[in-house]
Amino acid sequence: MVFSSPYFLFLYLPIVLLVYYLTPLKARNAVLLVFNLIFYAWGEPVYILIMFASIAIDYTHGMLVERCKRRGNDRAARRAVASSVIFNLALLFFFKYWAFVAGSLAAIGLPFMPRLGLSLPIGISFYTFQTMSYTIDVYRGDAGVQKNLINFGTFVTLFPQLIAGPIIKYKDLGDQIDHRPHSPEQFASGVQVFVVGLAKKVLLANNLGLLWDAYKALPAAELTTAGAWLGVAAFTFQLYFDFSGYSDMAVGLGRMLGFEFMRNFNYPYISRSITEFWRRWHISLGTWFREYLYIPLGGNRVSTPRLFFNLLVVWAATGIWHGASWNFLLWGLYFAALLILEKAFLLKLLDKLPALLRHLYTLFLVAVSWAIFAVEDFSQLGAYLKAMFGLAGGGLTDAAAWYYFRSFLPVLLISAVASTPLAARLWRRLPERSMRLLLPVLLLAGLVFSTAYLVDATYNPFLYFRF
User: Fold this and answer.
1) Are 289 and 378 in contact (CB under 8 A)?
2) 296 assigned to some structural domain
3) Of the residues 61, 179, 282, 322, which is catalytic?
4) Is 359 a catalytic residue?
5) pTM for this one?
6) Where is the protein situated, by its record's location annotation (predicted)?
């Protein structure tokens, strides 16, 4: 089940909210846990067993870490943390990377790992990172141990951000799991954020996805340079509005239930360096890797060679986190190289350039990265990158490129504006009375148009489902 579906919008969500608010405060986590499990089991009932295993393992390990720390046995506490981390990583490896490693070994003549043919559990990359943070936070003293199994299960399975983030660390949500406020103002704010996210996903991302799919499917001989850049532009906006829209819906749903989740995107396409871009894109993932991998490796308080090594490790992990394919590892290493260059000398040079050139520099490199990210087949990727750099089999342009450009120009322009703070700034300049009158009209229009699109269309992909 995805948020951008009529079943969720008009069946599951109303039932959840009705039952949740009719339930006494003390029992709401238990009710929410049941609905969380129903949400996950809707698509993959067998893999709900993974949820139970994650809850049981990390709950017991958290208790073990706390007991060892209380007794002054730090070595045993570290072993308990290590055991929890190994379990979570082993779970992630088995379901997400086993087939990838088996296939890669078989390709070089080492076919000793059987191919199991398992489907990927939805959202496993997100919730394994969340549960891993729990025992680490308890060990570090950043969070108290959760002794209530129902409350801990609610944290692990929380449906608003279960399958696509944002990645919530236990230390940021633990207090809210135990006690959280509920107010009409918070609920109304949640509805507003949710509808905005729904419109971004359905009205922008889905339409732009049609354009990207058309160009991704073209044979190399028919691909033009103009078409390749038009396709990448479509994917650049599709990915942003797909994922940020889903994150907005998660934040909105959280507020409807009394939770406050961290912001996952902060207008990344206005960045003026790759370093800034990664402070604005998928903030929860970047924060997780910084706190649980980059800083433990030494962060930037090390020698220059070691700093570059740390960046290489973190970005290789970031790349492969996104998918079990060589192109994702290449994508991560691509950003590692750019960030190393910026830290070495490039940022100082960029600071001397006009803001527009720095912005264009960032957009160009990010667009190239999305081609690497989106095309898993290396031969197809090579042809696509060649086309982007003027070596297209179909020449510079053709009639199809102009047709697609004219057809999708309105949604591309709207997407370009919507990916900047311009609309928000203009909105805040309106008189308060005008804002109060316009807001419900715009939200209703967004919901109606999104619903009409979902009812009428069969194309409703969700890119981060596979992660």
Assistant:
1) no
2) yes
3) 322
4) no
5) 0.93
6) Cell membrane
